[in-house]
Amino acid sequence: MITCFREKVEDRFERLAENAGVTVEGQTPTAKMGRGFWATTYNEAVKQMIEGLEGIAADQGSLSTEVVSQNYLSEAEKRRYRRESMRDELSVVFDQI
After folding, report:
1. What is the mean pLDDT of residues 40-58?
2. Secondary structure of the chain in the HEC alphabet?
3. What's this model's pTM, rounded to 2 decimal places?
4. Which of 32, 36, 56, 70 is deepest in the core (most CB within 10 A)?
């Protein structure tokens, strides 16, 4: 069942890319490439969020931004920061298409 679902997603992704005329190095992108792009971009968004906490950590005398993130930000706040960062990153990509 999972294989069937994965194949369905891959087929839809390929059709979407073909219909949009999107290529990567002359080839139609794959769903795996999309997942890789998402993971890389999301990782950058998390890094940006952590970097944004450096000033707070320094002001509080915390040893790291991770301490601030874990102890002082709610999951909702962290999610909001990640979404804002992802929105910014994705808008740059989609503005280029």
Report:
1. 89
2. CHHHHHHHHHHHHHHHHHHHCCCECCECCCHHHHHHHHHHHHHHHHHHHHHHCHHHHHHHCCCCHHHHHHHHCCHHHHHHHHHHHHHHHHHHHHHHC
3. 0.69
4. 56
